[in-house]
Write a structure and sequence with these properties.
GO terms for molecular function: efflux transmembrane transporter activity. The chain is α+β, with helices and mostly antiparallel strands. The chain has helices spanning 2-38, 47-50, 101-129, 135-161, 206-212; strands at residues 40-42, 44-45, 54-71, 76-81, 88-89, 94-98, 163-165, 170-175, 182-183, 188-205, 219-223, 231-242, 248-254, 268-275, 281-285, 290-291, 297-304, 309-316, 318-321, 326-330, 338-339, 351-354. The chain contains five helices and 22 strands. Strand 19 and strand 20 form a beta hairpin.
């Protein structure tokens, strides 16, 4: 009887131990399942994959370095107008000329008046020296001689002003009057383009320039209908005020010397502006950014300790706005993995798992 009771007790102890073991294993699995459930899944991106450049296209128009309206400084009848529209001219060529006869007569009269005043000055000086005439009369004669000399210079200058010569190598854009017209001084008669340098002008929105910051960072190229390849352009200048309509800035781009005679002011071109990412900067979406308590820009980095698990760490970065939806980021470690969204919901050092997409259990 005692032996049988001992066997029953041993079986009971064994059964209890087995039950406790199963319960412990079940509880351990249950805890693992719960731990697996509370690990937050996060979407991770690599900044290198998101690196990009900002590219925009603009309608451009070819313009000359300068466009000037030429006019006479004197009045007269226009008798020579050797300036066909669309013709290239060299610096110094005669483009227009008034009737020179009146101006030549004015020069002749001024020369005679000067000669007469010099004779009068000589006579008055001799009389003053011999005390026959006063010294004041000699001084008046000197003044009259000087005035005659000034009138002669004015007459000769007016004769020169009766002829318009090309002030530079250029292109005749427009004739603004007709031959044999009586022209008043200062009336424009001819419009000429300075073709020593050709440029392309575009209107760039204010918002885009503010996003770029430094216009010298922009690379410009032009697509011209007559050329198969894009033409590199150089930033020449831009107006430091916006246009009346559209809140845009007028940007002038310098073209290289191209042998295209018909590439004249008014010709159209498509200008492509591109801002490349800096060598030490990477592109990230705005959703990946967060701020510290001191408003320092930060991102949340993923530090993997297995294939799909790891911890997150806050990391300070330098941010520069680029497109409004993306940002140039500086200060990231090499091969960094960044939490793409929801970083503000995570705490520094928290363990997370990599989001690999939705799965369907069968």
């Amino acid at each position: 009887m005692t032996t049988q009771a001992t066997k029953v007790g041993a079986l009971a102890v064994f059964a209890l131990a087995a039950a406790l073991t199963l319960a412990f294993i079940s509880e351990g699995r249950s805890q693992d399942d719960v731990s697996e459930e509370v690990l937050r899944a996060v979407k991770i991106v690599s900044p290198e994959a998101a690196e990009a450049s900002l590219t925009r296209s603009f309608f451009g128009q070819v313009v000359a370095l300068e466009t000037v309206d030429l006019s006479f400084d004197v009045s007269g009848e226009l008798v020579v107008f050797d300036a066909p529209e669309g013709q290239f001219v060299k610096k110094g060529e005669v483009l227009a000329q008034l009737d020179l006869a009146p101006f030549e007569r004015s020069v002749e009269r001024a020369e005679l008046a000067l000669a007469q005043s010099e004779r009068e000055l000589d006579r008055s000086t001799k009389l003053a020296q011999s005390n026959v005439a006063s010294q004041v009369r000699a001084e008046d004669a000197q003044t009259a001689r000087d005035l005659a000399d000034v009138e002669l210079r004015d007459a000769r200058e007016a004769l020169q002003d009766a002829t318009i010569r090309a002030p530079f190598d250029g292109l005749i854009a427009e004739r603004l009057t007709a031959t044999f017209t009586n022209i008043a001084a200062g009336t424009p008669v001819l419009r000429v383009h300075d073709m020593s340098e050709r440029r392309i002008e575009i209107d760039v929105p204010e918002q885009l320039l503010q996003q770029v910051g430094d216009p010298s960072r922009i690379t410009f190229t032009a697509d011209l209908p007559a050329l198969p390849d894009p033409v590199p352009l150089e930033l020449a200048e831009y107006q430091a005020q916006t246009q009346a309509v559209g809140q845009s800035f007028l940007v002038s781009l310098r073209m290289p010397d191209i042998d295209l005679p018909l590439l004249i002011p008014g010709a159209s071109a498509t200008v492509v502006a591109e801002v490349g990412s800096a060598s030490d900067a990477l592109m990230l979406e705005a959703s990946a950014l967060l701020a510290s308590e001191t408003r320092t820009p930060q991102v949340m980095l993923f530090e993997a300790h297995s294939d799909d698990r790891g911890v997150v760490r806050r990391h300070d970065v330098e941010v520069m706005s680029e497109t409004g939806t993306g940002f140039l980021i500086k200060g990231l470690p090499k091969d960094a993995e960044v939490i793409a969204a929801g970083a503000h919901l995570l705490r520094d050092g928290q363990e997370v798992r990599r989001y690999t997409g939705l799965t369907v259990e069968e």
